[in-house]
Amino acid sequence: KKRIFSGIQPSGYFTLGNYLGALKNWVTLQNDYDCIFCVVDLHALTVRQEPKHLRKRTYDSFVQLLACGIDPQKALLFIQSYVSAHTELAWILDCYTYMGELNRMTQFKDKAEKHSDNINAGLFTYPSLMAADILLYQTDLVPVGDDQKQHIELTRDLANRFNNTYSPTFMVPEGYYPKTGARIMSLQEPEKKMSKSDENENGFIMLLEEPSMIMKKIKRAVTDSENEVRYDRENKAGISNLMEIYSSLTEKSFEEIENEFKGIGYGEFKIAVGEAVIKELDPIQKRFKELSSDKAYVEKLIQEGAQKAEALAYKTLRKVKKKIGLYQVK
Ligand code: TYM
């Protein structure tokens, strides 16, 4: 079986973008692949976090993944900071990553602009920690949204660089992107991706959001002055984004959607999108409520996941240390 690894930051509550771009795929893939999924709490530190919020969101992130349908019998689920091999390999990879490569990362540039009061070294070297996450587990495929493409490319470059400098050590992973939903945009600024850390809460929908609020946000979504449901990313970014959401949830093609809403207009289309989102999220919200109160069960899974991940990660880390010349007593 091929190995899959992917991660998600607990820097906020998961959004519909996270779900359609990544999580929905994770749930499907766990049936056919050897899957490892990780709550990457160390990555969240690149932006200032309130400790008690980070702690709660990390727990809630773990439970949200379970609620989405990640099955701990099928997939390995763990929290990044429990496995110190991640930061160890990240340091080593830092020493094989060029400043120029990190400088080109658009996510760094965006975040540095947004958090200009806190452009820290971790924000800059974020991609080599992400590469460490992936490379530790000899990953074949990384299911992510479009915004992670550049990071995956860098991970591949680092793997190849290391393998060529020493000898084959890392599997060279490939990105795995969904056909629709790979890039869900903000409901308020459809030129910008939907993000869990957006200050404008009307821009995103959270998985745990109240149905009435979901409907309200979709009804308020920015569209255009026409009244024709038609897919045109350039000129009709808002409507195209809602079509993308609807298409990912119903598996209808854009053409089918255009026909379904021909002559009907935006009002009803938005209601249909809202209903589709609410229907999809309803079972997730129910499971979240059930599971999150069962702390003993969740914490047992957190510990078991960490142990399994640690065993796998250290195998790769030991090989790496040996190849680069760190002294090891036999
Ligand atoms: P993060 O936490 O920002 O997002 C988690 C996943 O959701 C996807 N995503 C989106 N997909 C479609 N539309 C959107 N608007 C949208 N917003 C987010 C992301 O592409 C991602 O798949 N750097 C990663 C976390 C990470 C990671 C890893 C991922 C750390 N180590 C190793 C894969 C493998 C991140 O910040 O994701």
TrEMBL record:
Q: Which GO terms describe its molecular function?
A: ATP binding; tryptophan-tRNA ligase activity
The record's catalysed reaction(s) read: tRNA(Trp) + L-tryptophan + ATP = L-tryptophyl-tRNA(Trp) + AMP + diphosphate + H(+)
Q: Where is this motif: 'KMSKS' region?
A: 193-197
Write one Pfam family the protein is assigned to. tRNA-synt_1b
GO cellular component terms listed in the entry, alphabetical order = cytosol
Motif 'HIGH' region extends across 10-18
Q: What SUPFAM superfamilies has UniProt attached to this entry? A: Nucleotidylyl transferase
Places the protein is found: Cytoplasm
Coiled coil where?
Answer: none
Annotated positions binding ATP: 9-11, 17-18, 145-147, 184, 193-197
Q: Which residues bind L-tryptophan?
A: 133
Biological process (GO) annotations held by this record are: tryptophanyl-tRNA aminoacylation
Q: Which Gene3D superfamilies match?
A: HUPs (3.40.50.620), Tyrosyl-Transfer RNA Synthetase (1.10.240.10)
According to its UniProt entry, the function of this protein is described as: Catalyzes the attachment of tryptophan to tRNA(Trp).
Query: What does the annotation say about its assembly with partners?
Result: Homodimer.
The entry sums up its family as follows: Belongs to the class-I aminoacyl-tRNA synthetase family.
Protein name, per record: Tryptophan--tRNA ligase
Organism per entry: Garciella nitratireducens DSM 15102
